[in-house]
Amino acid sequence: MNTKQLRQKILDLAIRGKLVPQDPNDEPASVLLERVRAEKERLIREGKIKRDKRDSAVSRGDDKLHYENVPFEVPESWCWATLNEVCSVLTDGTHQTPTYSDDGYIFLSSKNVTTGKIDWDNVMHIPESLHNELHSRLAPEIGDILLAKNGTTGFAAVVDRECIFDIYVSLALLRTFKNEISPEYLRHIISSQNVQEHFKGHLKGIGVPNLHLEHIRTAPIPVCSLAEQCRIVAAIESAFAVIDEIERNKSDLQAAVTAAKSKILSLAIRGKLVPQDPADEPASVLLERICAEREALVKAGKIKRGKGDSVIEKSCDNSYYENLPDGWDLCRLNDIGQIVGGGTPSTTEPSFWDNGSIPWITPADLSGYNAKYIAAGNRMITTTGLSESSAVLMPADSVLFSSRAPIGYCVIAKNEVCTNQGFKSVVPFLSGMSEYIYHYLKARVEEIRSRASGTTFKEVSGTEFGNTVITLPPIAEQRRIVEAIEVAFNQLNQVTENLD
């Protein structure tokens, strides 16, 4: 269930007058707007507000106010207006860069309204002298609407407490005629797709989006009687409360799915996911065959001999290394595969990149990537780029593990690939082991990450990565483990898909 779309659908019904039934006893919105205009004129005459020449012109017809180009039809008793027409105040905060202090008066900016509620827990403060200057121009009050107009634009929140504070230019302040226009009704209308599209169509600026006051003022707003506004707000909030509960349950279920996957992997690498078969060839024999294959590769000059095996210390993580099933063994990652780094050809040399045909993968290519296999990233390099850099062409079924920025992405190469230096990869000495290695590394990401070093960027070195201890089952059991993981994960993924 896409709850974001569901919220928008409810708001869309609301602004079209289709969320709650109309009451023929309600006064027409045209009468309400006449009172708003009269009150606005009174405030102007008394010098409490200034006349704004940017109000849209309207004309009367059939007891209903019409704009020349209304976004859509509304019920007969409703009217169209602009935001400026239904507000006694519509302005923004101070344009001067504030001087902050450790305490003093609360100072809000657009970052404080991005959830539809004001975040009072993460606020900045300004000294009293600056507050006095700002407050003399604009004094926010309970029931005002704060609208983000710079950076993250379009979010609105109602001031929900009696509090003395000031606002930055990144916020607009909208003050309705509260006896005629419900602030909560107006906030919901502002959040509707129709008004948001109006805002997006008038954004200015290249780096940081900027919504100007003139375009906030002219946003078209459907207006109904105050009684119907209150009914609409009650219906929206009742529906949104149900959606909130759905989202909480959805979040809880997604967390449970993630925890279940972690548990499945933990059971798998400890020999507790599938039963052992005494007829399976022991892992010790498998390791002898791997050792023989590695020696053959050394003699053929395809890989270099290691500097010597290190002793496996079980004390560092007894929960994984004690009580292994019969037929299992312990080894290190560099015992069963070649550890390969990566490299980046010079980006200023066209011959390294133009018309490249060799897949070159970076950790950025794996951001949000959920598949187990990968064939290519966003860029290709040439054979010249490969030979002129530290990048290494690895065969299909190599296991790629991002070792920095960030640490922990893991995929299997579907074909020949190379990577940048953000990876430490495993090229298994024997075929048929890639998927077990892949799942093992996924299970041990946190332990591997804990061995990273560095200050600005944490990185797992090739030596540390190669020293990762592997609980190794017989090759036949590896296949059963992988199959059991895939079946369980597919079922869990189905649960997640059904949530959407």
Supply database-style keywords.
alpha+beta; Adenine-n6-DNA-methyltransferase TaqI, Chain A, domain 2; 2 domains; elongated; 5-stranded mixed β-sheet; 500 residues; 21 strands; 4-stranded antiparallel β-sheet; 15 helices
Distance between the termini: 4 Å
CATH homologous superfamily (4th level) name of the largest domain: DNA methylase specificity domains
The domain count comes to: 2
* CATH topology term of the largest domain: Adenine-n6-DNA-methyltransferase TaqI, Chain A, domain 2
Number of helices: 15
Shape: elongated
The CATH architecture of the largest domain would be: Alpha-Beta Complex
**Approximate helicity band:** 25-40%
Compute the CA-based radius of gyration: 32 Å
Mean pLDDT: 90
CATH class of the largest domain: Alpha Beta
Overview of the molecule:
The chain has 500 residues and is an alpha+beta fold. It has two domains: 3-242, Alpha-Beta Complex (Adenine-n6-DNA-methyltransferase TaqI, Chain A, domain 2), CATH 3.90.220; 269-499, Alpha-Beta Complex (Adenine-n6-DNA-methyltransferase TaqI, Chain A, domain 2), CATH 3.90.220. Helix 7 crosses helix 12. The chain has a five-stranded mixed beta sheet. It has helices spanning 3-15, 29-45, 128-137, 183-191, 193-200, 213-217, 226-268, 283-299, 318-321, 333-336, 383-387, 434-443, 445-449, 462-466, 475-499, and strands at 59-61, 64-66, 79-82, 87-92, 105-108, 124-126, 145-148, 156-158, 165-167, 171-176, 220-223, 329-332, 337-340, 358-361, 373-374, 379-381, 399-403, 407-413, 418-419, 423-428, 469-472.
